[in-house]
Automatic annotation (TrEMBL):
The keyword tRNA-binding does not apply. It comes from the Bacteria. PROSITE patterns: NHL (PS51125). NHL repeats lie at residues 101-131. Pfam families: NHL. The keyword Secreted does not apply. Keywords: Repeat. This is Gluconolactonase.
Length: 346
């Protein structure tokens, strides 16, 4: 039997049926050594968590897509509704206590503590200011947009189809995944399209003519894009794209030096420049030179997953968190460098 590397996992399990938060320590992928109930919030259930972020204090914010609100889990383990009203999917700006959202998805935070939300149902990018005011900063739901694309231009007249991911760079520019297209909200207040297509079209010689599924930005402002056309693209700080892993339009499940990817849907990057891709039922680690290893989510989490997928988010201290969308659970892994990734070929 192959030696199994020691793995220490501190897992924050948010159990929606009992709305309790448990801390579980595991070794060897499953043997429970510590378990304690640290909070119970029966009025704060989770439904389809599609993104999380962390503030400077270590508090976690959760886009609770199924209930059209945003939750907050503080460092003491207390869960509360941060913004929006449970089950009320609508549009209203103003004070955070009365603001409403519709299909909250991507979250981002700038250095000033302002939060940005990809509000898919309202086809807008919303902002929650540090002082608790909610406002639309891009998009206009009054004008209908079909799947053939949105419009660029001044932010409040630009049109989005279904913005579902938002990230921010060091300069304060926002990057938005809008139904397969990367839109950029510049600090001058204009929206431009920089990559992707709303159509199911791919040109293997053009990095920007394919459906983009997710975006991550490194500490050095390098951009990582996962593509529905079986690859991960990296854009350096000079704006030059390169193929990091996988081959355009060539489906596979092959790790190693010449990897093939299946359907990479989410991507994250750690402080060392390694990227992590959710590719069907496996978490794939891609080094800076494109070498791929992987582990199944079932093995990593010690359970059989429900539908909905799992994705990775790193906090400000480079601690990995796994979000199980279908299971409505969030896990924290203290030492992701100890995960037993290996070369897998199927």
């Amino acid at each position: 039997m192959a030696f199994v590397r020691f793995l220490l996992m501190s897992i924050f399990l948010i159990d929606c049926s009992f709305t309790a938060i448990n801390t579980i320590d595991r070794t060897d992928y499953g043997r429970v050594i510590v378990k304690s109930l640290i909070a119970k919030n029966s009025d704060v259930p989770i439904d389809m968590p599609n993104d999380i972020l962390f503030d400077l204090n270590g508090d976690m914010y959760i886009s609770n897509t199924g209930h059209c609100n945003i939750l907050k889990l503080n460092v003491k383990g207390k869960m509360s509704v941060f913004a929006g009203k449970r089950g009320v999917c609508a549009y209203r700006d103003g004070p955070i206590k009365t603001a409403l959202f519709n299909n909250v998805n991507g979250l981002a935070m700038d250095d000033g503590g302002n939060i940005y939300i990809a509000d898919s149902g309202n086809r807008r990018i919303r902002k929650i200011s540090k002082d608790g005011q909610v406002s639309a900063i891009a998009g206009d739901d009054k004008k209908l947009v079909n799947i053939h694309g949105g419009w660029d231009g001044p932010a409040l007249s630009a049109l989005f189809v279904a913005p579902d991911r938002v990230r921010i760079d060091k300069q304060g520019n926002l990057y938005i995944i809008d139904l397969g297209v990367v839109r950029k909200l510049l600090t001058d207040g204009n929206v431009v399209t920089i990559a992707g297509t709303y159509n199911d079209y791919v040109d293997e010689n053009d990095f920007f003519k394919e459906n983009i599924t997710d975006i991550a930005i490194s500490k050095n402002d390098e951009i990582y894009l996962s593509s529905a056309k079986n690859r991960v693209i990296k854009i350096d700080v000079a704006g030059s794209p390169s193929n990091l892993a996988g081959e355009s339009g060539k489906y596979g499940n092959v790790d190693g030096e010449k990897p093939k990817l299946g359907l990479p849907m989410r991507v994250a990057v750690d402080m060392h420049g390694n990227s992590y891709v959710s590719d069907q039922n496996r978490l794939k680690k891609i080094t800076k030179n494109g070498f791929v290893t992987s582990i199944s989510f079932n093995t990593l989490l010690g359970k059989k997953l429900k539908s909905g997928g799992v994705f990775v988010v790193f906090d400000r201290n480079d601690v990995m968190h796994l979000v199980d969308v279908g299971g409505d659970e969030i896990y924290r892994i203290e030492r992701h460098d100890l995960i037993d990734f290996h070369v897998f070929n199927f």
